[in-house]
Design a protein that fits this description.
By secondary structure, the chain is an alpha+beta fold. The protein is built from four helices and four strands.
């Protein structure tokens, strides 16, 4: 399975705020060990939620979108519904944490 790299062309915060439906935004860096280790658990958690849009954004110095969400550690997963943040996971340790968050918001 090919791993999708984090997107370097980030959308604007206004674009994110206008998204309809459920979206998981993943902030991280391609070279980040924590981010690389999280890829299989994120993929596993999302297998039962194919309707959730998953946007992977490369974060770092000078990256406005991550700053607008006050991202401090990677990976940070932000679950939004209709452009509003409803849940945040920072460095999830296993798929269970992500699955529980998804179940909690009833998606």
């Amino acid at each position: 399975m090919e791993r999708k790299k984090l997107e370097t062309n980030e959308p604007s915060r206004a674009d994110i705020d206008q998204l309809q439906g459920f979206t998981m935004i993943e902030f991280g860096a391609n070279w980040c060990g924590y981010c690389q280790a999280a890829q299989p658990i994120i993929a596993k958690a999302l297998t039962n939620y194919p309707h959730i849009r998953h946007i992977k954004i490369e974060d770092g110095k000078g990256r406005r979108l991550g700053r607008s969400f006050a991202v401090k550690l990677w990976p940070t997963l932000i679950l939004i519904n209709n452009g509003k943040e409803i849940k945040r996971l920072v460095r999830p340790a296993d798929a269970k944490a992500i699955i529980e968050a998804l179940a909690e918001i009833n998606v």
